[in-house]
UniProtKB/TrEMBL annotation:
Molecular-function annotations in GO: transmembrane transporter activity
Positions of the EamA domain: 141-274
Name by which UniProt lists this protein: EamA domain-containing protein
Signal peptide from the UniProt entry: none
Record organism: Rhizobium leguminosarum
Amino acid sequence: MPLDVILLVLFGALLHATWNAIVKAGSDKSLDAALISAGGAVSALPFLPFLPLPQASAWPFIGASAILQFAYFQLVAAAYRAGDIGLVYPLMRGCAPLLIAATSGFILKENLSGGALAGTMTISAGVLTLALEARHGSSRAVMLSLANACVIASYTYVDGIGARISGNAVSYTLWMSLLPPVLLFSWAASQRGAVAVARHVRHNWWRGLIGGAGSIASYGLALWAMTKAPVATVAALRETAILFALVISITVFKEKASIWRYVAGVVIAIGGLVLKLA
């Protein structure tokens, strides 16, 4: 994998960890996640007139991605209600690249080199190591996390293919970002009432704008990288976001880090090095 691709994916991972920290710090995880999605759409709008439309063949992928993104945010909220973030986040983010690595040869006809496969597995192992420090959890949390890992793998495939056939990965990313917040807020209003949703938006809109811009930039960088390198290796490298999340958890949230967090950080860093050398 070229160095410039690695550096941009790592920057995207930092943005991913940052917007997740914004959600974590909020008072209503479900509505804050919807705000992040809406912020991404708002951030995309000014750039759309200057970009070519995606190829017609990419639009079905954009529609499928919107539905999968809606399912992703719903499962994130449900999993965090059922279990500790120290268990849920590593399972979701660690299992997804494993699923992609195991199936990309069949679905995309991408055969990973031995080094790329080793780096992918090492990063995933490091992320999953973080689950060992979880103190609270349940079988429901585990099942929801694993289900969301499948959703993450699915939308990674959909968007990886869609970005490649769209003719412009940036344009694909920005158009793809418009529909999920419509679905999320429509669902939230139907479940909690439009007044409650509007009240939360009025007081927390800035969270969505800042986090949304980071979210869309993070995912756009990943999709661009998938046009330059195998989807499985990009998906695995993106999970280095957990390293940045570790730093944020200690410096911002003042969380105590167990030995497992440091072990995981070292393993993930080794995995990133293996991918660079592969």
